[in-house]
């Protein structure tokens, strides 16, 4: 049996991270989302995987990453979607690589699926995973009969018809490709996979299964923190690198042989470290923290509930509840979840207001559902000393802040 992963979408809601990085290559615990999906398939005996990529530089980015990732035991094939015409269209690109009558597991490329969800699919001829949600009007909703077979899949229903959302984790059959020519284009000029699945369900039973393992959609930057908080506590500690004297570890720690933690560092949480990274001396780590490859977290830094990309340098600063891209220089500053009377820069939510942080996405303010949310900083940003960054602010790739600058609005540059 084959697996098919749709990896052709643009991560516009993930800006500024998605400006320079394909959304399927966003890292969770220092591993790309698409590699999480490939691993979940492999754990269930599926070792032939078709990756559908876009025809632009992001598609090449995905292809190059996977071809150099040394993924053992899996045969990867690539198909290209030249135009973005919806979810049915993207999976249609795999038609020539799937045998007539063959079953396959299909996954959306920007979500993480626990391997037990795929295992549950494989117990049925055809099946689709659903997850109960509190806002069904925002999802495709699965309607099923008393036997648990799919009746139809309704995209973003205006009336309450159920609360089991389609999450993009399915076991389908090559027969679904035959329905594509019968689909009507939506107002958004897209062909919806929900329509194809309903047609398939009208012809043969498609079992509806409630999720038995985690499902972690990564549509917005703060979802990177959400996924980290779920998965970091599940890792097994693996300490291969050097740990100097007086280092305290009160959680899970992954430390490769090429990385090291210097003296008097205190880790009160779960820490995942990449290759060739140095932490310390005198660094405080709290909560769930991920630090990428080739980083240096220097003297007197404090990092809480944050994900930091590759090749970043943090100089004696505080970072809380934030997401950093790659190649960022952050000198004696603070990026955090509370604004307060600090002598150096900081970013975050106001403890006096018991509300969630909202941030601007496509000219609309979106509720992050997080009371503590700091900055989202794109690749190759240079932060000036003592910069003050307000809660939920995003800084586009390549931007530079001046010393003592107060950033009250997103810094958007030529990448838009």
From TrEMBL:
InterPro entries the record matches? Bifunctiontional_GlmU_arc-type (IPR023915), GlmU-like (IPR050065), NTP_transferase_dom (IPR005835), Nucleotide-diphossugar_trans (IPR029044), Trimer_LpxA-like_sf (IPR011004)
- Species classification: Bacteria, Candidatus Dojkabacteria
Q: Which GO terms describe its molecular function?
A: glucosamine-1-phosphate N-acetyltransferase activity; UDP-N-acetylglucosamine diphosphorylase activity
- Entry-linked NCBIfam families: Arch_glmU
Q: Which reaction does it catalyse?
A: alpha-D-glucosamine 1-phosphate + acetyl-CoA = N-acetyl-alpha-D-glucosamine 1-phosphate + CoA + H(+); N-acetyl-alpha-D-glucosamine 1-phosphate + UTP + H(+) = UDP-N-acetyl-alpha-D-glucosamine + diphosphate
Name of the protein: NTP transferase domain-containing protein
Q: Which organism is it from?
A: Candidatus Dojkabacteria bacterium
Q: Does the keyword Transferase apply?
A: yes
**Locate the Nucleotidyl transferase domain: which residues?**
2-229
